[in-house]
Amino acid sequence: MAVTIRDVARRAHVSVATVSRALTSPELVRPETRTRVLAAATELGYQPNRAARGLITGKTGNIGIVVPDLDNPFFTGVLKAVQARAMQADYAVFVADSDEDPVAEAKLVHAMAKQVDGVVLCAPGLEDSQVYEVAGATSLVLLNRRLPGVPAALMDSAGGMHAVIDHLVALGHHRVAYLNGPRTSWSNQERRRGLMKAVAKHGVDLVDLGPFAPRYEGGLQAADLAVAADTTAIVAYNDIMALGVLARLRDRGISVPGDVSVTGFDDLTYASLCSPALTTVAMPVAQAGRTAVNLLLDWLDSDHTDVPQIVAETQLIVRGTTTPPKR
Amino acid sequence: MAVTIRDVARRAHVSVATVSRALTSPELVRPETRTRVLAAATELGYQPNRAARGLITGKTGNIGIVVPDLDNPFFTGVLKAVQARAMQADYAVFVADSDEDPVAEAKLVHAMAKQVDGVVLCAPGLEDSQVYEVAGATSLVLLNRRLPGVPAALMDSAGGMHAVIDHLVALGHHRVAYLNGPRTSWSNQERRRGLMKAVAKHGVDLVDLGPFAPRYEGGLQAADLAVAADTTAIVAYNDIMALGVLARLRDRGISVPGDVSVTGFDDLTYASLCSPALTTVAMPVAQAGRTAVNLLLDWLDSDHTDVPQIVAETQLIVRGTTTPPKR
DNA sequence: AGAAAAACCGTAAACGTTTTCGTGCGCGAG
DNA sequence: CTCGCGCACGAAAACGTTTACGGTTTTTCT
């Protein structure tokens, strides 16, 4: 049914080997025969069977990506970039969703391992040791998680959070609440790290609350604790929580940014659409996605002597939810 | 390096053929040897090479999905469900993003064709004829697009829009504006079809505006035209446009829902998070995603006599942006 | 011009499976 | 007792490629 390399060979009056060479390593055949082969191939609409090719080369031409949640715009932003860059490099992309379940994460990359040349693992919830374990099954690059010995595409969350505090103290805030996301999450640890550094530097009072579920509901819950702590600014772990905070504050008649300033993190689309628009920090998701596949591709033909870990810069986006404190 | 079927055969003291049989068609081997083979397989951690298997069976165990935009929560919702259902059926999922470009859509499914058993094509912008053309390249299931002869998972947008109008006239509105999305989009045509039917039924004045870009900016632009048309209700093509409308109206000091009611479509997360919360219609994306892969799987071993087209019900979600008109 | 080297291309093996075909065996029927 | 049949399994072909190897032609150097 399908057109095979043999058909092309017949039509071009050469052997199958020559066809293969003409297509994969053009410098090995005479230009004249190469064009003849190419002509035959396009005329027949020939497309190499990747399975057969993979069988012999050991390479599949596929990469995998496993994300914690496909409903999370943060990860789909990464996915979009990964897909685009991979396609550019003539790779196809397998996608899997772990549903925030660490053991599913491990299972998924193991399942993918035989079908791909490598996988990018996004913000895994796995223990370090388990990450190393799955890294044994295939070429792995991490996204938003740093681990010695494995390549990673990172975003400077710590720096972003530092910028948030810089911004707040510049406005005159001296007492701020931080609403933690999940304690075990690498992202939360990073953000908290940047926060602590900035807090120490400026000598501001920090009220450390949580952890909370990194969801709208978590924000609702956290808001009350934050106002009880009597701070002038509330720094949320991410945008969704911040939206919850805003909603709860509005319900309680507390004005933002009049009575209290609020910041988010991630710069999801709705951060700019709500009102007042949310001050937040933009994550370079697309850039990180691109570099993740670049790292993966480089890693595939490298001697693995150095393991690159590239961090992309975040950017503070000042909008309407932050102003100087009243008192 | 990797453990092959030959290793299993050696360890179980049988031939490779028997191993294959024991794993894929257990009834062909004696129970005793079967357990012996299974034991050997698990001890060695054997995983069949899907490429090799696919080479001979012609089936890949993969399905593909191509979507217009991975940044659009609507499609990632579908994707999430597709991925989950496929994984359940032991299929892996290729994903591709056409960036709203019809010719890219066609290219992508052609590229996928050789690597998958079938693909679900989401809301294609292709001409009918071109859809048929790509349907020739592989087994195709459409999502949110109806075309005679090709299986489809649909959502009852028309019904949803009808419900919107029913709701508005029940509130007492007699003159409403509809903000069109892209004219060529099947979704817009469906929504408009439901709209027209309801409008005719109730005898309401319809002001048909647009088309507009189905984005926030499109909403900003459309809002002014809608107020100029002096209607008491504005029905937007989708949620994002509705958000743009809300923002523009607020900027102009027009109160929602006091001065004018507004509705969206899709029920994206931020529809419930903005304030006032948006009245909209929820699309059964997850359900449609699931049925899409069900249809695909069924289609693969069917005689293709009947082509199923399953439509899932939408649901009107009444929230804060719709009230009776002032006058 | 002749030989050595290089360039080009064909033959065949290999990749890891599934599946067809054939073999040996036990067993029931005639 | 023999014939035939069905069952369990092994040998080998096949799937569509890539690539090592070797052979033939062309180029290059003296």
Automatic annotation (TrEMBL), chains A, B:
Keyword DNA-binding (UniProt): yes
Listed InterPro entries: HTH_LacI (IPR000843), LacI/GalR-like_sensor (IPR046335), Lambda_DNA-bd_dom_sf (IPR010982), Peripla_BP_I (IPR028082)
Key words, A-Z: DNA-binding, Transcription, Transcription regulation
A Pfam family the protein falls into: LacI
PROSITE patterns: HTH_LACI_1, HTH_LACI_2
SUPFAM superfamilies according to UniProt: lambda repressor-like DNA-binding domains (SSF47413), Periplasmic binding protein-like I (SSF53822)
Domain HTH lacI-type: 3-57
Keyword Membrane: no
GO molecular function: DNA binding
Protein name: LacI family DNA-binding transcriptional regulator
Lineage per the UniProt record: Bacteria, Bacillati, Actinomycetota, Actinomycetes, Pseudonocardiales
